[in-house]
Amino acid sequence: MAEKITLGMSELSFTNGTATLGIIGLGSCVGLVLYHNQGTVCAMAHIMLPNSREGLPRDANPGRFADTAIAYMVRKFAQEGIKAKDLAAKMAGGASMFKKIEKGKLNIGQRNIAAIRKALKAYNIPVVAEDIGRDYGRTIEFDASSKQLQVKSYRYGMSVI
Q1: What is the CATH number of domain 3-160?
Q2: pLDDT, tens digit, 9 for 90 and up, residues 112-156
Q3: In sequence order, what DSSP letters do the residues of 106-124 get, joined into one string?
Q4: What is the set of active-site residues?
Q5: How far apart are CA 21 and CA 5, in angstroms?
Q6: Range list of β-strands (E), 2-137
Q7: Distance (Å, rounded) from C-alpha 108 to C-alpha 114?
Q8: What residues are paired with 35 via a beta bridge?
Q9: Which pLDDT does position 107 carry in this prediction?
Q10: Where are the domains of the chain?
Q11: What is the pTM (predicted TM-score) of this model?
């Protein structure tokens, strides 16, 4: 049975296919998976905020922000000899949990999604599946061997993307 690794906010994790990676309770945060098209090496990030340059406190944790998380993940794949062009992405989350008060700059979920798309585009990494936005939370689990992302929500049950 594969080991299960559950990520907390702002965490990143890599596996060579010997573990499943998961996140419990995504709201406006986004769970991003990058994986090697031809192998079982994969990474997951629990991205909390869109941009490390917006005057928010910076720290040594690259998983907190979309821009730093993706750059870090691409570098780690490169250290394994895997080029960005050989990666694919799946993502879930980015909800607007409090629609009535989230407008413009406060809509962190939509801003996270946009920042992730921008960073992935810079590396030419395609998003091959997603379950994003709307107004409900999600829990996710990625199996590197099957490359399937299981998405669970209280409102809509379970789906596999």
Answers
A1: 3.30.1330.200
A2: 999 999 999 999 999 999 999 999 999 999 998 899 999 999 889
A3: G-HHHHHHHHHHHHHHHTT
A4: 29
A5: 5
A6: 3-7, 12-15, 19-26, 30-36, 42-47, 87-93, 127-132
A7: 10
A8: 42, 88
A9: 85
A10: 3-160
A11: 0.92
